[in-house]
Design a protein that fits this description.
- The protein is an alpha+beta fold and 95 residues long.
- Helix 2 packs antiparallel against helix 3.
- GO terms for molecular function: 4-alpha-hydroxytetrahydrobiopterin dehydratase activity.
- It catalyses: (4aS,6R)-4a-hydroxy-L-erythro-5,6,7,8-tetrahydrobiopterin = (6R)-L-erythro-6,7-dihydrobiopterin + H2O.
Length: 95
């Protein structure tokens, strides 16, 4: 059974606790500017390890020092609690 999609209201409430994240019930994104290219790659490595442990994987776009993470639960067709949990983890790793 796939995880339940968040409603617009649920997502709006969740995003209030996730500064820098934007999007819709279809997907949420955040771009983080790392101090250097290597720091950005290191962040991607740490997020990849966390995502692998959770068996929930973000789409990642790397442009020099800017790393964009986009989250949605593909099997559910949009944003679920799994995406909010991974966004919180990405924020902790980016600190």
């Amino acid at each position: 059974m796939s995880p339940a999609l968040l409603t617009e209201t649920d997502l709006t409430q969740a995003l209030t606790g996730l500064p820098g994240w934007t999007g819709s019930v279809a997907g949420i994104s955040r771009t983080i500017t790392a101090p250097s290219f290597i720091d950005g790659i290191d962040l991607v490595r740490r997020v990849a390890a966390a995502a692998e442990s959770a068996d929930h994987h973000p789409d990642i776009d790397i442009r020099w020092r800017k790393v964009t993470f986009t989250l949605s639960t593909h099997v559910s067709g949009g944003v679920t609690a799994l995406d909010i949990a991974l966004a919180e983890q990405i924020d902790r790793l980016a600190e």
